[in-house]
Design goal:
alpha/beta; homodimer; 6-stranded mixed β-sheet; 7-stranded mixed β-sheet
Chain lengths: ~575, ~575
Amino acid sequence: MSHVEFRTSPAQYRHWRLDVDGPVATLVMDVDEQGGLVPGYELKLNSYDLGVDIELYDAVQRLRFEHPEVKAVVLTSGKEKIFCAGANIRMLAASEHAWKVNFCKFTNETRNGIEDASENSGQTYLAALNGTASGGGYELALACDKILLIDDRSSAVSLPELPLLGVLPGTGGLTRVTDKRHVRRDLADYFSTKSEGISGKKAVQWKLVDEVVPRVRWQEVIAERGRGYAGSASRLPGGPAIELTPLDKTTANSWATSVSGEECDVKRQVSYPHVSALLDPGRGVAEITVTGPQEDAPASMDDVYAQGAACWPLAVARALDDLILDLRTNETEIGTWVFKTAGDAAQVLGYDELLLANYDRDWLAREIVLYWKRTLKRLDVTSRSLIALIEPGSCFAGSLLELALAADRSYMLFGVFEDTDPDAAPATVTVGPANLGPLPMGNGLTRLQTRFLGDAGALAAAEKAAGDPLEAEDAERLGLVTFAPDDIDWAEEVRIAVEERASFSPDALTGLEANYRFAGPETMETKIFGRLTAWQNWIFYRPNASGPDGALRAYGTGKRAGFDRKRV
Amino acid sequence: MSHVEFRTSPAQYRHWRLDVDGPVATLVMDVDEQGGLVPGYELKLNSYDLGVDIELYDAVQRLRFEHPEVKAVVLTSGKEKIFCAGANIRMLAASEHAWKVNFCKFTNETRNGIEDASENSGQTYLAALNGTASGGGYELALACDKILLIDDRSSAVSLPELPLLGVLPGTGGLTRVTDKRHVRRDLADYFSTKSEGISGKKAVQWKLVDEVVPRVRWQEVIAERGRGYAGSASRLPGGPAIELTPLDKTTANSWATSVSGEECDVKRQVSYPHVSALLDPGRGVAEITVTGPQEDAPASMDDVYAQGAACWPLAVARALDDLILDLRTNETEIGTWVFKTAGDAAQVLGYDELLLANYDRDWLAREIVLYWKRTLKRLDVTSRSLIALIEPGSCFAGSLLELALAADRSYMLFGVFEDTDPDAAPATVTVGPANLGPLPMGNGLTRLQTRFLGDAGALAAAEKAAGDPLEAEDAERLGLVTFAPDDIDWAEEVRIAVEERASFSPDALTGLEANYRFAGPETMETKIFGRLTAWQNWIFYRPNASGPDGALRAYGTGKRAGFDRKRV
């Protein structure tokens, strides 16, 4: 699999058109059959692969920042009689397991992002199914706030994965059908075994769609509903659109030189203005450093608008987002990500304060905070071990402290590095308003609440320390960091942690982390990434799906799948 | 794998001793190394296999019914320096996937049953770790209300599955550590990667155990804590102990005769006094019929005590429980269970009424209801498609209606079978008090609440109909049954439903059902069966665990496991 880039822009789209007409945007899926990300399959029937979904993700992001006037988004298809046939089957059948799982994760995140826009950004999504929506196509509609289906005696909604492919719908369909749309579970069961799906009035009665519209009135009704949504949505006011300028991303290889003078150990370095990652394949580690702002936060949002995409918190969110996606997709053998920060904690807290003070009155302030929320959630569901290293000169405060709280484990230096920088100020961490509510995890709790689940006293103590720069002893006592070794033990403890991680079963680590990171309550979102995804991964991997006689391989060949009939 | 029976009794135990001393029982695990259920492994270090756990399950059940005077149960080990080493690794390594998964499911259910006894039966479990508790051994302790660990400089608690075996703890450990004991997630992460575990004061500080007790005071403190629990537990009063007499279970093979006169199609028939199952391997179906009571419910609990284990609701719960376990373990290729009932709905409701009226004042009434609750929960997590057929002469009312509500789909005959029994009364279903609260699912909701998730109006309408015998039209309108075909369509619709089910991927069906059955909120229990189990199944199945170089195979050979380092 060649290197995949997630950076794109409307001018480069091959599969989508984004039309904006005042407060209503229309996002038209019109997949180029020949435009697959990888050779070997044709994207027939508006089916999609990762490349198609990268464009969708980009469009949803740009609608937030570049089109603040938009309050309703109509998602529809540019094809006749077909809305979307879901993920391309030949692509899935030919892909290796890690690719399939990563692809589903990204598509899930994009659909969650659509729901986040409907819920928190005053941009309501309306699925206008002008043809059949099957499998991932219907799941895309499920991520929208409302679903309209054309009534033309042939168009239907369906989840045919189980009967046709021997797998589950991979992007939240089963969870959203019952938990979001409240389709009765026995009807949902029947629906999911009927490959031709359900159409017309029954689709409405069963709550699978909100409305069916006769063909002759289709255009008119969709336009009407779009205007209606736009009228009732509550998008915040604020300044002008912000252009999401091309990310300033550079990749370089560095060669370490061994004692004998030979070049060895190629390391890839990925850099953005405030984020860099040094990839060490030998140790299976990426060291990710986030740099704080270079100056104090501006006094008002006016200056943030003036800075645009270069504004520190937006630039960091974009860089982290791209880096997470890049490493997840392209560097599957780098199993541990080590997070560091460098900079001034007060400046980080200053930016947090400005954005949070304007969260309820300025669309851009809110969008930047929401972007941070989604990016941190992306980290939470990343199948890599996350370790935070908190050293002198770092700035784990407020929004950046979330990186340490998202980590599976954190190490904070007690004191300073006596040999290299004895005069440094010891590292501190600072709890700030950003840690107390605006950046919830998928489980609906803050990372602090999840950390101190069931221990109200410890949570209160940590929250009460907000604003205080806490040195290692206090941070450890308050439970904000895992370990606080001193200079003498530091290198050894960190080395062991990283080496141990690289020695363990990558699969078991993924499972361990997927369970421990989501202590406490579950939501639709965590159910999609936990319960549903885990079952889907298992099913994908079994011979009944992916073996030589499995359903995924048999599909379209005219042969019946051969199943091991044992129930597990 | 030879046939496994779940029926046992203390006189037959090879691995456990049950000592009762007034209100305190002591359950001593003393595994016979040579007593494995299957040849090929020795049960060293108090490790367990399914046979050991069958005895534990039996003991927990008998404590409820045969020892109503017991209010505290001390769970400890008969070995020196070792409490329990968890599931036997050689057994796991040699078992096929379906066996491992089914084994873990049963052990999970038994541990949930221990928690149910602590929570609802006034029998509080205390884990007295007189030696190291590792892996499943510590998970068994986690199922108890309190954990005491001996402080002898060697005994520890640990979850070494990930570092040693490349899998996850399989019986709820990860979920209970954070969600029940509220161990901080980063400490939990560290704990689960440290194969030697944690002991002494740190085990208390991290909340892994409740108390560490010096060796010299061990016996004294355990006795004291046992008496203390017994004193504070609130076991209900009531009549004398009920003996769980040997189940009257018969198994016979029947041979159908084909048109040409040849014997074909061997069918196994399993029968208990009020429950029978006809197994049809050819169609992959078991037809399970539950018969209602033969007479009206007695007027008071006195008569229930007099009837003892023969009392209808207790006898049915025991039979269903045994049947579910038998079919899950021994009949893995029978993927669909069809439920029918036969009898008088009013008599079923009469028994429900008697038990529920005494639920808060009589231990036996409560125990029978709790047993129904657990048995229905066992059905909910069973990896078989469940279909209810509601025909004339059936008695799907109250507790028996739960079987239809637990089903993935139900068919209710509209009218009667005109050819065979035109004068029959049409089938009815009746909502009763048993459907309105006392038999919650693992998600904490009733099956009606789960069914009508997010539709308060439909729920209220169904609940309001309580007491009315509802014919097919009304039952369908109220959403209590999935379909109500008439005589003309009945046979065809049912046949298609069953045949279709048999044609689908068994894995995909398991995943579909595991998601749709648990619409709505998640609890610790559903997280264990959903999120945790699904990840564990996936990990178990991957070559990193079970392949020739996988960690499960490599364990104990001196070789290191060979891992595919790709993160998925």
